[in-house]
Amino acid sequence: MVIVMKPGAPQEIIEKIEKKMISLGCEVHMVQGASYCVLGLIGDTNKINQGQIEANDYVEKVLRVQHPFKLASRLFHPENTVVQVDGVKIGDGNVTIMAGPCSVESEEQLMTTAFAVQREGAHILRGGAFKPRTSPYSFQGMGEEGLKILRKAKEATGMPIVTEVMCQDTFDIVEEYADILQIGARNMQNFPLLKRAGKSQRPILLKRGLSATIEELLMSAEYIMAEGNHNVILCERGVRTFETYTRNTFDVSAVPVIKELSHLPIVTDPSHATGKWSMVDPLAKASVAAGADGLIIEVHHQPEVALCDGAQSLKPEKFARLMRGIEKLVAIR
Amino acid sequence: MVIVMKPGAPQEIIEKIEKKMISLGCEVHMVQGASYCVLGLIGDTNKINQGQIEANDYVEKVLRVQHPFKLASRLFHPENTVVQVDGVKIGDGNVTIMAGPCSVESEEQLMTTAFAVQREGAHILRGGAFKPRTSPYSFQGMGEEGLKILRKAKEATGMPIVTEVMCQDTFDIVEEYADILQIGARNMQNFPLLKRAGKSQRPILLKRGLSATIEELLMSAEYIMAEGNHNVILCERGVRTFETYTRNTFDVSAVPVIKELSHLPIVTDPSHATGKWSMVDPLAKASVAAGADGLIIEVHHQPEVALCDGAQSLKPEKFARLMRGIEKLVAIR
Amino acid sequence: MVIVMKPGAPQEIIEKIEKKMISLGCEVHMVQGASYCVLGLIGDTNKINQGQIEANDYVEKVLRVQHPFKLASRLFHPENTVVQVDGVKIGDGNVTIMAGPCSVESEEQLMTTAFAVQREGAHILRGGAFKPRTSPYSFQGMGEEGLKILRKAKEATGMPIVTEVMCQDTFDIVEEYADILQIGARNMQNFPLLKRAGKSQRPILLKRGLSATIEELLMSAEYIMAEGNHNVILCERGVRTFETYTRNTFDVSAVPVIKELSHLPIVTDPSHATGKWSMVDPLAKASVAAGADGLIIEVHHQPEVALCDGAQSLKPEKFARLMRGIEKLVAIR
Amino acid sequence: MVIVMKPGAPQEIIEKIEKKMISLGCEVHMVQGASYCVLGLIGDTNKINQGQIEANDYVEKVLRVQHPFKLASRLFHPENTVVQVDGVKIGDGNVTIMAGPCSVESEEQLMTTAFAVQREGAHILRGGAFKPRTSPYSFQGMGEEGLKILRKAKEATGMPIVTEVMCQDTFDIVEEYADILQIGARNMQNFPLLKRAGKSQRPILLKRGLSATIEELLMSAEYIMAEGNHNVILCERGVRTFETYTRNTFDVSAVPVIKELSHLPIVTDPSHATGKWSMVDPLAKASVAAGADGLIIEVHHQPEVALCDGAQSLKPEKFARLMRGIEKLVAIR
Q1: How many CB atoms lie under 10 A from the CB of residue A169?
Q2: Domain D83-332 has CATH 3.20.20.70
Q3: In which residue ranges of chain B is CATH 3.20.20.70 found?
Q4: Which of B213, B242, B331 is closest, CB to CB, to D213?
Q5: What is the per-residue pLDDT across A282-326, written as a single tens digit (0 to 9) for each?
């Protein structure tokens, strides 16, 4: 950590801060330039409250040298984490495909789609039972009934299930039915939910928030890991920008950045990133070419009657075409 | 709602969509241009699932004419909502001041600050007991003990209390102690929390999310109101942009925009918006000049030892100076 | 174009606007809903001044149905444009590689890099002679001397040259030496420069502005095309967001979006998008997988002594590895 | 400047960088932490090419301590700069009002508006003769004829003129007619134009780019000042964000931030910031309350027939009301 003092900061204030930092267990190196005095701190600076230092009238700014995450950091854990669920691996160098409808709408709908995606090579079945919706007047998901249908689909196909958990109140029940628990973009900094997820035995699929930096995503993973659950899968699903043609701006750079900073697997969700089915194929391929460990793809046998996010769902035949393209890419990776 | 068909969309598809819309209770007006065929819908289009329409291969886009919120809309409720708590009004044309420390840290700290802000004219005491923090290693708040100290401060000063509620699990207890319940920026789209807030008898102070549009903020208010709680106070606290000198970019336009679109009171939080105490005074004044119904100001008697957000806290003497400036502004509004 | 009137707009105002639109050559369809009256316009709405309509106190908003670009639009020009220069094609389904240093620094530097990139399969040599720099104190490029060195490199290698043109004053001279003229991100809406480019016989490589929407990029292409030059190559090079780990956020979606909206070729610049050499390889591959027509890659034989943007330059051996990866991707596209 | 080495960087590389920095005239302080080695540099680091250092495979990142601008910095020039033109001062503690139509459309239009704004207390007349427009098919301004009309309005009213200069080619002619030369947001980083402006005797009104940081705005001012012209007036006119209700997001914080960082006057343009006339009044007041040195306000006697930006123009009677509000605010500032 580096503390930059304002030009003209009195010597006694600088010394006061120096002493305070030493008392917190840091070694302090003072460097006096022409205009600025700079204090370089060595030691466990994670304990230091940056805001307290910045509150000083004579402090210009505080620069961090180290990333604030540890358990999620590749620096302290160089080998890739491989998450396993029912024999399916995520993060082992292959591309794991999670596919299915946005929402579970009926047994017939889910079964039709589940068999369709399995036939084309999907490894994990996705489907929402509890749905976060911008409007209180939109379909909010089938709830526990949806979870039961997901369980049936798992029994019929053998595919493990990933589904969203929205709150502490329904955590236990979702945990009972699902194999991987998804925490959605809007909940990425729902800290009580993250803590609860950290106590779960299930792997957590953590989606990046709409305006979360990659560092904040890794800090949210850190919340889960700090409670003991190290099976965290990260997911890039687009961030919010000024561009309006796509629903979000898909940040494909997040894939190599996360590979650099962390040992956790990173998958992408091109369906939510763009909100347009015609963009799913090129962005899925871009993700795989950039090194993603997996993809989450929305598939619906009749998108035009889907109760949620039909605009971004692939029909099974388009999904089949995408899978053939992905296979070719994986072969040359 | 306006449906724009792709150029060259087959007549039978257009008619199919037309019939579907009529079956949903809409009147449909077809307008055929040189390249585009456009369908104008009349009726309660809130029931229509926009994604289903956009899922059609021949639909170019869907444009909404009406805002999706109703209970929060000034269109259906032209008079200003005035929220009252313990005799303090918010939204009645005056500027209501909520002030206090970011976090409750001790009885002595809160009492000192509480008396200081009251002396300078604050109406409501703020202070966090449950704190959302980006890092799991940061101070997370005193919890129920903090609530008890807030209660004592209320008894000593007579000022009502506003404090954050972070999750369903601790909702009941926060509701028991606090007069106004704050839902923080990161929870603006925590829909189960919003629904629970909608069942509360307490007014809700709802903060705008870091990358939430004003429409989304109003949709989150709609969630609360749809459950029966119409006492919602909105709060602008800065949005996330590319600018790094301030922590967030304070969107002062949100004040007049919300006045135009909604009847709910709108207050601002210049402390969180910038993260710098030196910016609080000018932005507070800008808010009042733009028509804000109130301000939330962080005050700490010793910011340099604050456990949270010290960098943005005003010392009591700076708060006093700010209050004198606000009073002059209110006098000429 | 759709005009949405405010609820309660007087009938006479609506009729006044209707008449005005008819007088401008439009057919007007009025649709009266419960709260809103909507006017649907048919005809050449490009002539209509949207701001004039919105200036009316009773107009809520104006929605556009059609994109505002025509010459750049795939709707009116369904086949792909293929730009040709010295036998090299851009937009014909292959991936055209433009590579070289950020800036021309000396004859030795350019020649070394030129031969290196040619050996690995690059088609076009890039190199800046006039450099736009954020600071007036940074190296501003070698100017005409740099152009002469580029010319020598072309003579030695046979590769055509792409280089930036920064202003009208130096347009003629850059045009004399270069084969493709690049207009940089900061000049994307330098309209006099675009008009001048439209009068050139040289193909123009137009980079997307830091915060330009895709529609605005296409409107800038329209400026060039409207003056008669239809050889425009578009370039995605990252947009500005809140994320700070990468210099910009690379919007890979721009590739398929532009393929959908326009017939012009689209290439990407992963070097400038991220500002980090370690990100160039994955983002270049992502671009190709998403359908890009070409890549611009910064290569420097000694990045640590580069006068400009060394942090994002590949060494020749890393460029060679990237080229092998790209070739495999092209083979399966 | 602080260089952070990657964990595990070899000692010889660290020493090589150290020597290089010493050879560039810096004093280097090495601080070795548990994971990171950090080099603190003292001396004139503006000469150091940050990219060259970052190009090193073992460098994690480079942190800057000092702002990169000097002439524009308050640190080296503590007193406020006051710009004077024809007896009108900008930056002397008062609020200078620049008002007039977006574009000059005819002598009658300009004269009507000029007398109207003067009557209400405006100090400077604004009006565009050369107009940057997103579409090549929009009205591009009257050019020199417009300048002549502006000159007539000046002769009739005595008010100095501010008008936009778009390029080098027309610089001389605009300079001949105008008193203050405006450089628009899209040209904020048109460096040849900035250099030309730096050679002018006229004050320059420099608008912040749509996605420019405040630091970049000050660096653009530095370009002008480095050429000898120190009469630069900065202008906040909204930045681009995800919010769509307003055209841009007006960053009122820019006012106090610039007051802190620079000695140059800062004015705001609430008309362009929002694109909506109903927002101009509250945002103008917010600007003044936050400490702005002036305002640029679009006024048109018939906005519904304005050839440009009618939606954001105030009618004279609304401008009069705004002026009365501003006067009250100025009185208590």
Answers
A1: 12
A2: yes
A3: 83-332
A4: B242
A5: 999 999 999 999 999 999 988 887 777 778 899 999 999 999 999
